[in-house]
Amino acid sequence: MTDLEKSNLLFFSAEAAEDEDKKKEAKGGFLTAELARKLTVEVVGTYALTLTATASGSPIAIGFVLAALIYAFGHISGGHFNPAVTFAALVRGAVDVRTFFAYALAQIAGAFIGGAQHNFALTDQGMTFAHNGGFPEVAQNASPGAAFLSELTATLLFTAVILNVATTKAQAGNQFFGIAIGFVLIALAQTIGSVSGGCLNPAIGFALPLLAEKTDDIWIYALAPLLGGALGAGFFRMTADPDEFKEKEE
Predict the structure, then answer these.
(1) What is the pTM for the complete model shown?
(2) Nearest Cα to Cα of residue 81 among 119, 115, 38
(3) I need a labelling partner for 9 at 20 to 30 A (CA). Which of 25, 77, 88, 210 fits?
């Protein structure tokens, strides 16, 4: 793989240091200094994304901050900030199972911190999540099945876009991947917002309903995006040029 092609793996830069990490792991333990840096960034990035999501409720604000976070931190952790994205990376072959679980735990922690901060601010104003609706929930005129399908299909499209613009040799070296990811999130969240709230993120969908003590629909936001991420990666593997996988197979 050329240097230009490697540059396009910025979004999944966990892979860029894979050989070095394996050497360190062989000497002692899974949590290397390199992985600790990545997990720290995933906590902070997911915190910022969650705070923006729950405080603003605006798909535009969420998409813009996600694009900025990816450009800022993608070279460190890959800039996932979403267990569904990391799960798609796992199915695509960019991260291993242990890294997926480490990232997911970091992302959930960041989501709890961001949600707790906004909930604290609301408490000072005499409100809580339960009063202002700052958490994902199924719309009153929608069924759980419709919400589940909406979250699943939107996350499928979201992760398929991510894998195509940020992880392929054909798109190596492009400068638009962060914008493309942020914009597709805006469009998808706006599209399904009136049905499911447009969460597309299991960390946020798990943390915020728990903080709001509104857990009836939590299974939708924990499960549907993960399944959507797997399907998005499966779609990518079906439609991508076979050359994208040759190096790993060798």
Answers:
(1) 0.88
(2) 38
(3) 25
Burial 185-205 (b: 16+ CB within 10 A, else e): bbbbbeebbebbbbbbbbbbb
Q: Which CATH class is domain 3-249?
A: mainly alpha
Question: Tokens 């050359």, residue?
Answer: 243
Quick: pLDDT tens for 127-153.
776 666 678 999 999 999 999 999 999
How does pLDDT run across 176-218, given as a tens digit for each residue?
Answer: 999 999 999 999 999 999 999 999 999 999 999 999 888 999 9
- Residue pair 212/71 in contact (Cβ under 8 Å)? The answer is no
- Six-digit token string for 173: 């070296």
Spans of all domains in the chain: 3-249
Contact 130, 212 (CB under 8 A): yes
CA–CA distance, 164 with 209 (Å, rounded to integer)? 31
Q: Count other Cβ atoms within 10 Å, centred on residue 6.
A: 15
E strand or H helix at 8, and its extent? Answer: none
Widest CA span in the chain: 60
Residues 6+ apart with CB under 8 A from 172: 2, 4, 5, 6, 7, 8
Tell me if 12 sits within 8 A of 91, measured CB to CB: no
Answer yes or no: are the C-beta atoms of 34 and 24 closer than 8 Å: yes
Give me 80's structure tokens: 């996932």
